Amino acid sequence: MSKELAKTYDPKGLEDRLYQKWLDSGYFHAKVNKAKKPFTIVMPPPNVTGQLHMGHALDETMQDILIRFKRMQGYEALWQPGTDHAAIATEVKVINKLKEQGIDKNEIGREEFLKHAWAWKEEYGGKIINQLKKLGASADWERERFTMDEGCSKAVQEVFIRLYNKGYIYKGSRIINWCPVCQTSISDAEVEHEDQDGFFWHINYPVVGEEGKFVEIATTRPETLLGDTAVAVNPEDDRYKDLVGKMLKLPLTDREIPVIADAYVDKEFGTGCVKITPAHDPNDFEVGKRHNLEEINILNDDATINDLGGKYAGMDRYEARKAMVKDLEDLGLLVKVVPHNHSVGTHDRCGTTVEPMIKPQWFVKMDEMAKAAIDTLKDGDLQFVPERFDKTYLHWLENIRDWCISRQLWWGHRIPAYYCDDCGETVVAKEMPKICPKCGKNHFHQDEDTLDTWFSSALWPFSTLGWPDNTEEMEYFYPTDVLVTGYDIIFFWVIRMVFSALEQTGKAPFHHVLIHGLVRDSQGRKMSKSLGNGIDPLEVIDKYGADALRLTLMTGNAPGNDMRFYWERVESSRNFANKVWNASRFIMMNLEKAEVPASMDLSELTAADKWILCKFNDVAKDVTDNMEKFELGIAVQKVYDFIWEEFCDWYIEMVKPRLYNDEDTTKAAALWTLKTVLGGALKLLHPYMPFITEEIYCTLNPEEESIMIASWPEWKTEWDFKQDEKDVEMIKEAVRSIRGVRTEMNVPPSKKATVYVVAEDASVRETFEKGKVFFATLASASEVLVQTDKSGIAEDAVSAVIPQAVIYIPFAELVDIEKEIQRLEKEEGRLEKELARVNGMLSNERFISKAPQAKIDEEKGKLEKYTQMMEQVKERLAQLR
Question: What is the pTM of this model?
Fold first, then answer.
């Protein structure tokens, strides 16, 4: 071995150097290769406004683990990366940046604004990608895509036109969610519902022509009264049968509105009378359609009252609410105000309370496509891991409404719809028509709106592979294998990808959806800017290295479950890296000094060598099974335990006597085994900790290019040494028992003593005879004597029992009796004082009556502990005397 490992493991220089090596070698690039099976993952495209956060770090680490695993298994593994234009988020950033320069978006106009947006994308778009590289992401950067690049834009246009021609896309005035701050429509999935304290205002509406008769309604939004066009009662409600068809005077206006009967009204809720405002409530909108009611929009886009609001025109919605409630009170029409906690929709981007409003918008009809998406799950073509997320997916699809896809933004895919200025005809096409098909004129303007950002990211699994063109990538890598994502975007994104892919390609876009939870802080709180508890992954990488962060994120990680982030865990991950590094250095220093055979006759191996090979064989099989089932946390725990315990703490200690003895004929077998098992263990660890494993593996095997393209370990029949495994486990059991006895008796590790192994079974005796060399080392034995009975063993020998043998150690060899008696007498004196103190406190009435209960319990606990210790000391002294 020409190269050697540095004395200490320092991830800083090492990680950047190795990542560059992988890039230069083109290991991340996947090609269409019919001789291999493909395995594909598409990266959920981070926003170009983005900064790497812990959620990304977890998401990308899981994908990287899967892709590295499959690459080593011999698949042509494509991890397709890219970024998302993130319409509204980016537009807001650009508007704010321009504001700082004193530039108004509307003054410079659309074309100029878009130049600034593209400049922003160029400046910040690559930032998060570079951060992903720091994490070790082995994505195919040569294929990096952007949701607004030429190919993806072509796919978006194609899908819009296809769905429009099929009658699935339509323009209509419907109730949509309107954000008064962002001044755009948003889809249902972008509305977060939160419970807020509010009120029910009970208001009397006078019955026309019947002096002193009123209908009492209750509302949480009194300002929308200005847009009421009816009051509804349930047709089965006997209380109001005589009212149906009568007119009411709408308070604060000069309008009269009818009382209508509709089954939508719940007789038991409130007063059983409901005000109907078709332009400002989705349910009222449906009632209005059934009864041909007028739709009166009383709000401007910024949520101020519009010109239809009379004296309230120009007021903010909440300001108008106060003024109107006061006026109703003055008119004697306010019956009462009742506190009420209710669910309020807010925009997930800016937190503003959303206003339901009627607006002409573009919609996608969801009935048929939702059915197909439900069927694909039921048919098993699509599977969620864990399965419980099926419910979330189905619940959303079964209750889906038509998707509002138009946004009043400039940054994004502009809707390919053109309007004739002369006759108003709408033409949906790839470019502006020359002549109107209806009137023959040639004056057109394009729709001002852009598409919802999720419309383009819904096509991501196939638009990135070249669709709608029939590319060889599309044919080879699609459908993809697994999507890794958080449970928080099942509605937004997963569902839309599924129905879009089924509609456009006839296939589900991926076979599995692996769902992970959120990374929370150590107190279990969501990481957020407002709490200031976010932990920057780059800071962790800078301090401990990417491998330590990756291992921390995967330790104890179970699909679908949230996890907590502790700095202590990162420390222990880094300690594990140090352990692997130091063990590897130790092995390589020994390999340097001897000739290690390239291959080994397995019959020349000792039981210890066979034991570790058998252990490794089984762990490789188990880990592979776990990874195939996406149990990444369980898999890495098995690798960790194997390396730390079986390999480092047991096997390396077992072989040390053979390594240090040049006369030992089994030294070559020990070295071959060390090198073989270390190489295999590094491969199993590689997907999780790619950098440290690459550095060690290539130093261990200088003839190999990279661990990344080395083959994944597979279970071998010839390494299935079950009997040797059993034998060595028995010796380990004996070692543990001896260590237990020595600890109990406070024997220092340096003190050696004779160890007798007494067993009637000849095969057990043979096992200990063969394992003497390492058994003596591990058991701190000056010599090991194996015999059938107790002959020659002193009566006072200390014994330890294991299932098929009894271990004896002469007492006098373990302990200097005089010294031990002195030590125990000293301990006895100390415990007498402690017991006197505790008993004194607990028998003191004043202490018992005044001290807090916790303090009394603490002292009682001490009494119990000291009494127990005293018994042990007395018993031990009696034995020694």
Answer: 0.84
